[in-house]
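Question: Send over one sample?
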Amino acid sequence: MIILPAIDIKDGSCVRLFKGDFSTVEKVADNYLETAQSFEKAGAEWIHMVDLDGAKEGRPVNTKIYTDVAAKTNLKVEIGGGIRNLETIEEYLNMGISRVIIGSAALKNPALVKEAVEKFGSEKIAVGIDAVKGMVAAEGWLEASDVNYIDLANKMIEAGVRYFIFTDISKDGTLSGVNKEQLKALADATDGKCNIIASGGVHTMDDIIACKEMGLYGTICGKSIYKGTLNLKEAVEYARVCD
């Protein structure tokens, strides 16, 4: 399993939200590059980054920050937020981003996902499934839908998607533990056809262990690292050694 420490960017700053609520924005680090370098020093190979401004506006906003991290560290950068067309995906990949996350567009424009996978390959494309009570949300989590998260995952698998980031929004930024029930349901329903990355609620090593025992591909850690409830180096070493 891989561990993906997270940096969310709003107005150029490293922040965290509580349950995806933009009014709860909290600055968690002073310098995005120094933060990314500290993750690399702890042994991380990947970093999960989110353009919160981009997610809200539906277009890339903080591009330089992500390309800086890709260029100035050895971390593989996974980026989401505001990605709505093939041109944006291609630009990110050409600038050294390792994996691009399609979120809202997967719900509203599934043809884009299929085209992206066909053009760039399944290793370069992930679909972000963000849910409230099992129903998918979009547009920076500001819009709800009547689409079940498992139904969307299966539809995306048919389109060729092999990487999913699943976030229970009610858990995000809460340090209350991952949603093991929904993650297990997703893993069971997709039956090994995809790589699932857990996001939202990670608090301690217990969550890392639980995700590993479910056979998940990866786990994203954000607030737990910044608040000190999870030791990133320990989490990375556990995930790596136990593979």
DSSP finds eleven helices and twelve strands in the chain.
